[in-house]
Structures
1.
Amino acid sequence: MIRVEGLSHGPLEIPALVIPDGETAVIGPNGAGKTTLLRILSGITLPLHGSVRVDGIPPREQEVGWVGEYPDRNFLFDRVRDEIASSLRFRHLPCGEVDGRVREVAETLGIARLLDRSVMALSGGEKVLVALAAALASRPRLLLLDEVDSHLDADTALLSEAALRRAGCPAVVRVTGRMESALAAPHLLFLREGKVLHQGPPEAVFTALSGTAFLPPLWGCRR
Amino acid sequence: MRVSLRDVEIRRGEWTLSAAGVFGEGRHLVTGPVGSGKSTLALLLAGIIAPERGTVVREGSGPLFLSLPFPEHHTTGATVGEEIASWGVAEAPVLAASDLAGMSLEPLFRLSRGELKRFHLACVLARRWELLLLDEPYTALDCSGRDALSTRLSAPPAATTVIFTHARESLPRVDRLWEIREGRLVDLGPVADAIPLWSSPPAYIRIALEEGAAPANISVEDVREALCRTDG
């Protein structure tokens, strides 16, 4: 569980917020502060005012995974296998353990065939899957995904969403621009101008958003 | 402008893309999985790369433009105003279309990625093109921006427009559908007949087809209309 209190940072003003375990989708217009919130939850950015606790611990002391919109801008290694292994090797885990974990996470995400390829030769969607694998390798308590689905085609997006669920990370917070994908998350946050305007199950949030552009394409028009 | 692909093949190591067909006047949508070669095909139609086999023939003259997925790859000016001037178009309509009224002096890189994309597209669409190639125009746009773009692209300022995208939540009305399947570009034909042949349509279209609706085109409005109509 994530607890945010008295958060004030740039455009963000969030007096109190509790994000439950499981999957949460963050939606809202460009410039609402979605990415800023995610960076603060991850510990990449320290808030000017207020506090964030992930299971009672500050994000920087917690095991947190992060994947951005352009994952290849953060790749450190050329070979897929080395990129996925990086966080484990940085903490000097035994080679056998690292190799086993890399293979396990690559198989969960369906990218075992890519392990000896160069990350630069991958397609955009494959790069996302490699970045997801690298983030999941250390078994994070909290995984943060910033519009990771925006460069994926429908099948690849479904595949990575399914893989993510199989990976069993206790808490996933993902920013998405796709309302259809948000509909699949049990918990939704709608941000506008730095504030959390709506939160709750998707049905409740989308009902509150009636008349806006922030609805799944067929909302209210299904048998 | 009319672009004909005759027995074209592109090779990148193990990977190949073969394509044949004619992109005539009108609006075309090309879809396909990630890594299937949409961007490569866009570069080919633009004449930036040449095929390993076959020929690409462009008939007609006039300006052509390829908009790349990342808007920062197109910027040349330091400010919003300088960038608009570099396109040789009037400032006010572009500012209005990109929701940047009064921000002519704003440094370009202070815009968010969504704002920059919307601004880049407003610059592109302020001009008239004979051939307009849009590679992932929906990337980084929010829901309002995507809906506005779909409306705009239903009547684009170009004789021939080809949209390459994996976007699944909002699409413009088009005349013809194409799909890349297992290394081959497939011409699905005129839109209404092509929709049922589409192997991986956006979810809103797949659901409508499963429920027996026959949308006239691929925009969300068309699909909602077809679906709500069958709902009675």
2.
Amino acid sequence: MELLAIIFLWPFIILAAGLVFVVFYDVVDSSGAIFWWLPFLMFFALLIMKKSFTEKKTKEMNQDEQVNLLRKMLAVFSISLLFPIFIRYMLSAFNEVLPAFIIGLIIGFGFLVWGIFVKNHKTIMYSNIIGGALTLLYLYSRLWDLGEGARVAAAAFGLVVAVTIAFIKLKDKLS
Amino acid sequence: MNTKDATLKVIFGVMIFAFSLALSYFAASYFEESFDYWGVIMIFALVYIVVGVAVSSVLAISLGFLFSADILILNLLFENFGDFSDATKVAVIGIVLIVLYAVTWFKFGEVETAEVVEKEEEPAEVGTKNTNLNDRVEKVDISGKKKVTFYPIKGKAFFSSEPNIIRIVMFTEQVFEKNDFKEGELDDYYNMFVNSYKPSLPKEKVKIVLDKLKKFADSGGRFEVT
């Protein structure tokens, strides 16, 4: 089982990274979205922030460490971009009704909070924070079309979550 | 594995990858009048995955087939993803996300033992016989050293910033005059250490640390103090 997991790891991660470009192409093709450049920007951003994954310089790493770092970065890239697209398709599947937006917001905030508080899993932390933030940006931009009531409710929900997280994270510093 | 073997593996892997891709595309074109083109590509992708799993003991062949299946599936999705219903798209991306999270959680987690070992509670009774060993370990100078990272041959790397562990590791390095160990090389030393060393840590924390060190001793590997 362990052997199979090792063998499948690279093909699966490459498949997932490739799927990011496939779905972005689909989104751009179907809705003329202006964010076609996001995967490329994200990839370069990850290359720049690779220091966050490890204290070592690339030259100081052995081959295994470099390969592992690349796999982690590809996983962050795939999860953080597939996540908002998943929410986008979910909204479409439910004909963009308000309950679907609410579910999307809950999932988005849920993953963001998970990313903020998870320990010993930097890959999941970055994936969830970036993916959750992109999802929330997308959802809030779409909420604009649903009228003032929805905007007020979403802003209030966001505020409650932000205050709660800030209180938990900064508890020591605030007191 | 020497460089020649590695090169041979890469060459054969690439050959299998190229020929399997060629076979699937040529066959799909050849049967296009009788069968759906993308249907044939999908069947080839599934067959390659099954073959890749079946020959998993030979890594080069397995990866050749699996990467080939990757290309076929991505090509298939690229050409047809827009035609799928939104529910199907949600299902496809959802499944990929679930597997990605599972892979990330189980394979890419960093194990940090340092944070859980610093509360002052009753010391554990792991070993009390040889206080001399304790003295020797206590005298190891760890000034300027912040953490030790273990790179086991099998399994994930992990690190600890607990001073006692850094001392033990530096002591081990002094005893053996090296930091790289073969599988099982540290077994006897580990047993001796566990029976002789009295750690000044809480019991449950000691268990976590010792489990990690035992795994490292069993699998072999190297450590680095930085």
